Every structure is written in C-alpha cells, then in structure tokens.
Amino acid sequence: MSTPTQSAIIWPDKFLPGTTDNFVSNEIIVKDITVTQIWEQLNDISKWQSYYRNCDQITEPKTGPRLQKGDVFKFSTFGLPVLTCLVEEAVSPGPGHAGRLAWSTRLGGDTNEKIEVYHAWLVEDLEGNRVRVMTQESQIGEPAARLATAKPNRMLLGHQDWLDGLVKAVKGEEIGETNLESV
C-alpha cells in the first residue's frame, strides 16, 4: 500500500517557519464533510464572524466577499487595530488538488509595534471520506517574538477556535464557548 502525500503550505522565503519570530500551526481532520463545504465558509469573509468570534470590523474587497488573489480586505483580530490584508493565494479545491488561501499584512509603527504576518489555509480531501483543514501563521517583529513565548499561546488557541468554528458551521452545529474565553 502506498502512503498518500498530504499537501503543504507554500511559504514565501521571508516567512519560512523556523526562520521567523513566531509560527503557529493548527490542523483538524474531519469525517463526513466535503472540501467544498469548508471552502464555501472559509473563502467568503462575510461568513467569518458567524463562526469565528475573534474577528470583527470586516471590510470586503471591492470584488465582493469571496476572496481572490490580489484582493485587499480588512479585519480586526486579537484586539489589534484593523489590518489591511493582501490575498496572496486563493485556489479553490478540486479533484486531485488542495484548496489554498493565504494573505499577508503588516502593522507599522516603532520597532516595538512593527509586525509582518503571513497567514495561510489549506483544505484537502483525504481517503476514507475525510477532510483535512490546516491553518498556519508566520510572523516577524518584536510583538511576534513576545507572542511566541506567551503562555497560554493565544494565537494557537484562537486559530483552533477558527478551525473548530468552521467545522461546526459546516455541520450546522452551535459554535458555543471558545478557547479564548477561558484564558
């Protein structure tokens, strides 16, 4: 029996995990849902607040709520000011290939406040009627270095909430309490 290969995030060299100040990876594998169902929730930013409570002040791109490469959108998360994000990758899942969504953003200011971020998603079918959903984020800057050593890791917990909420939304389940509410 051959071992199936799982897809991986395509990282710009600047954000390669292990070379940045902070990196977080979250993944979930779920049975009896489809990549199409996940993609419909993930790629439509007008739906994010319905299943991810750690975001608000969403401004859709001029092209509408479905993200496309080159789009610019805005949102606030983790109590940060509104972030202006550039969609770096937006590939719908299809037969034999994973869905990919990634954006970059940066906050200016002095050295203590400056941060650059690359956030990526991957959704793919697995054998046995399963779907893999992964999100990873790589960050550069002093605020990122501080986040990397914080306990509990709020970014890890927040991104897990995003994954869990996404799957619950697809299944039609109530979102309920989040990991961040207990921190």
From TrEMBL:
<protein>
    <submittedName>
        <fullName>Uncharacterized protein</fullName>
    </submittedName>
</protein>
<dbReference type="InterPro" id="IPR023393">
    <property type="entry name" value="START-like_dom_sf"/>
</dbReference>
